[in-house]
Amino acid sequence: MAINLNLGWDMVRKEMKNSGYLRTLNRVAFNVINRFLLFRVLKCVAIRSVDQGYLGSNYNYIYKFLGADLLHELSKSNKNGLPQEFVREALEKGDECFGIMDGDTLASFGWYSNRPTMVSFGSAEDEKSDLCLHFAEDHIYMYNGYTNNNYRGQRLHAIGMTRALKEYIARDFKGIVSYVEANNYASLNSCYRMGYKDFGKIYILKIFGRYIIRHTKGCKEFDFSLKYTGN
């Protein structure tokens, strides 16, 4: 769950309307800082119970884990937010994708893993990941959520996560863990509405090619940590 730091003037005005002056100033400040170095503050969140109000009631949609064949087919279209190489690597790793289908259209999806997962905070989407996220084996890590622009405003991202959570609890996992960048207020509000709770923070600074990473105490409960994998 990441934030786009490239805020133009139109985006700034929209942010001020939706989030207020101080939050907008905070995001602009992060934008300026990250032009010169990489700095992130991550809020670590977890959910362990299913809110029945977020299971979805639109019976025209199909809610399910998407099979490999369907994912490979969907990845052939740029409009689905599923790059072919990413899908191949995620499936080889054993990760799963829970999606919401409207007929043949992929309305929303999220990826889920029970293994350490590479993450990247670079400005370029194709930048090689050099940080690995670790977490407790009895939890599932949710990442790379996406909702088709034509389906925004229906809370499908939250519905998909809630349905995936229900499935994983049935498999004897304790819950789902994830992170949200601390100034991504829209995503944080969405998480809190469906029942996610903060359990810690991670501070990341990359300067002169070196990482400085700090975790707060709450991360220990979930063995939640970022580790540099480079030299």
Reading the helices and strands in chain order gives HHEEHHEEEEEHEHEEE
Low-confidence stretches: 1-7
Give the domain tally. 1
Globally, the shape reads globular
The N- and C-terminal alpha carbons lie at a distance of 26 Å
The CATH architecture can be given as 3-Layer(aba) Sandwich
Give the helix level as a range of percent: 25-40%
Strand content: 25-35%
Classify the fold: give the CATH topology.
Answer: Aminopeptidase
Show the helix and strand layout.
Layout: H1 9-19, H2 21-33, E1 38-47, E2 62-65, H3 68-74, H4 84-93, E3 96-102, E4 105-113, E5 117-119, E6 131-134, E7 139-147, H5 156-170, E8 175-181, H6 185-194, E9 197-207, E10 210-215, E11 225-228
Parallel strand pairs: 7-8
Antiparallel strand pairs: 1-8, 1-9, 2-3, 3-4, 4-7, 5-6, 6-11, 9-10
Helix pairs in contact: 1-2
Descriptive notes:
By secondary structure, the chain is an alpha+beta fold. The protein has one domain: Gcn5-related N-acetyltransferase (GNAT) (Aminopeptidase). It contains six helices and eleven strands. The strands form two sheets. The chain has an eight-stranded mixed beta sheet with strand order 2-3-4-7-8-1-9-10, with helices on one face. A three-stranded antiparallel beta sheet has the order 5-6-11, with no helix packed on it. Helix 5 links the parallel strand 7 and strand 8. Helix 1 packs antiparallel against helix 2. The longest helix has 15 residues. It starts with 8 loop residues before the first helix and ends with a strand.
